[in-house]
Amino acid sequence: MNSTITCDDGKARCAWCAATPEYIDYHDKEWGYPVADDIRLFEKLCLESFQSGLSWRTILAKRENFRKAFDGFDFNRVAQFTEQDVERLLTDKGIVRHRGKIEAVINNAKCAQQMVAEEGSLAVFFWRYEESSSNQAEPQTVSTTETSKELSKVLKKKGWKFVGPTTVYAFMQAMGLVNDHAEGCVFREEVKKARQNFTKPV
């Protein structure tokens, strides 16, 4: 929903920040700012897949544990994980212990390696799917778009798992492929400037 809240510092922010104090720092410094780093892109897509059926609050609280468990989401390392690693991770109380999602991260790491071999980087591929501002819906009123559906379809065709259109759109929102900060949120303009100054990977 396109709405804001006024926080203790007097700044208007996206209303979802009200859910937990931990959201504010994430919202102000990360959410929506454009990212071209392959490790961060891979990490975020993995974490969004873990979030499926859960709240982002749960995943954010465990993010450092996830990073330790998956070697900092270095997909070249994760691609080497074995069944022993899967069993190890299923006993790790610091993360979400879901076999299918754990195995998907390992699978997707191999897919990421292949994508880098084909495209040069993950960033080059993902930034082809930047949401057109002319087609963008009102901020935070949709959970999927035609672009996220298309990206999801292409990723699945390339062998990626747990990358449905909703998961992919949440990834796009977070990584700056769309500016979905609410109208009236003071950080909408900050993100807009960051995206304008961002050099798109080619």
UniProtKB/TrEMBL annotation:
Regions crossing the membrane: none
Coiled-coil ranges per UniProt: none
Signal peptide residue numbers: none
Entries under Pfam families matching the protein: Adenine_glyco
Record-given protein name: DNA-3-methyladenine glycosylase I
Species, as recorded: Thiomicrorhabdus marina
